[in-house]
Structures are given as structure tokens and as C-alpha cells.
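pls ignore typos typing on phone
2-acetamido-2-deoxy-beta-D-glucopyranose + seq
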Amino acid sequence: ERSMAILNTFIRFIQVSMPRSDVIILTDPKSKLSINQGKASILPIEGNYSRGNLMLQRIKSYIAFLELKLEEVDCVNCARHFVFTDSDMAVVEDLGHIFTSYPNWHLALTFRNNKGQPLNSGFIAVRGARDGISNS
Ligand SMILES: *[C@@H]1O[C@H](CO)[C@@H](O)[C@H](O)[C@H]1NC(C)=O
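k done
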């Protein structure tokens, strides 16, 4: 119940900061999520969600999601970008400007000073053009 409250708050923050965005919750098909926020949807993705595999599974789920979206991108000027985040963060400003202010990248990552986990997968942005998606 508590984590559902956190998830709903997370969704609410996005909907206030970026009202034109869609919120898609990628999840284990076995989990029983009930979200009560209008525009958010749930996308179950098969995988190994055991504790020891969670970091890897998260990246695999992102890739599976992008592969689905790659099939949908068929217009040249589609500007539908993707931001993958953990649900324990609050989005307090429209992130759209990172795609327009800095046009020359496909994938944005946060590095951290940790040999075991050099990437912080809590925030990953993918440019929603065909090149951006397939290169990511
Ligand atoms: C899932 O991942 C864990 C941790 O890597 C591993 O021990 C387990 O065998 C995996 N389960 C399946 C069904 O692949």
C-alpha cells in the first residue's frame, strides 16, 4: 500500500511537470499494480525480477520497451522522446528541454564513481527518433 502511494505520487509529479507526457510503468507481469492516475498505463514485461537480477532486468526491460516503440516509429518527424527513471524520484520540471537544447545525442546516462555499477540506471534519456532508439 505504501509503495503504491509512492508510485501514485511519482506519477502525479510527472503529470504536473510534463502534462503532455505519457507515463508508462514497466513491471513484472506477476506484480499486481493498481494505479489510479488517469493517463498512466502499465506495461508488463516478462523477465527475471529476482533481487539478484534486478539491475540487469531493468536494463533488459528498457530495451524490450524500446524495441516495441521502434516498431511504432514510422513517421520521420516523430518527436516522442523517452525518459526512464526509478519511481522514487520526483520530476519537478519539464525535461523536454534537454532534447531541444542539446540536439546532438541519442542516449543520455549518468555515470557514477563505482566500478561495480558504473552507470546509474535511475535516469536514462533516449531521443525518440529512429536513430536514437535503435542506437540505444
Ligand atoms: C534469476 O536470476 C537469479 C540471479 O541472477 C538467478 O540466481 C536465477 O537462477 C534466475 N532465475 C531464472 C529463472 O533464470
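The chain has one domain: 2-135. Residues 48, 50, 52-53 surround 2-acetamido-2-deoxy-beta-D-glucopyranose (CB under 6 Å). more later
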